[in-house]
Amino acid sequence: MILAIWEALKPLIEIIILWFVIYKIVVFFEGTRAFQVLKGIILLIIAFFVFQVFGLTTLNWLMTRFFAISIIGILIIFQPEFRQGLAKLGQQHLFAPVLAEEDIVAVIKEIASAVSELSKKKIGAIMALEGESKLSTYTESGVALDSKVKSEILQSIFMPNSPLHDGGVVIRGEKIISAVCLFPLSENPKFEKITGSRHRAAVGLSEQTDAVVVMVSEQTGDIALAYEGKFIKIETEDVLITALKDFLIYKKRK
Fold first, then answer.
1. Which pTM does this prediction carry?
2. Counted domains in the chain
3. Given a cut of 90, is residue 212 above it in pLDDT?
């Protein structure tokens, strides 16, 4: 009887263990350059099994030799990412906390309030609201804060005399994770006429991640959003709140 129950449960236990291992591998690479390579490797593995199923001998032989060589190359090229991932692996939580909708709205209002005040004073600012793609690569280039999102704190960060004003802020959930972060500049020719490195950095980050990036122009005080490589001008604080709700709440439901 016990043996029969064990035989019935074994496939389920194997699936759970396999799921956990895959999850940990994804967490291990998430937020690093190697994450994109991992996705490519998964596609190659799928192709490898397809070649085997259909008996494509030549392609199967080539893929086997390619994997043998590429593993050594990956270990050498991505040595910093492996070292960083191993250092953080034990710190990961299995399930990240999910904010309730009212908490997200509260964070949005704090950000909008700060942006509105910075805009009136023509103080430049750039804030990245993290999505599913972790921004660990960029937060590590900045100064760790781990502070609750408050309008007053955000304003003080970008004040000209503040040692943290130069660079971007990364917001994860209801926390300001890091300041003075360096974001990648967009290389899209259509944005060449956009003046200011903050604007191009905002668009560049939104091209490479699913972050929503809010920016304030130091020259004009204009407010804008960058999302999925698109540059969106914002006229008022209410419009900013509506846009952030759309990106951070309503689009996630679809």
1. 0.63
2. 2
3. yes
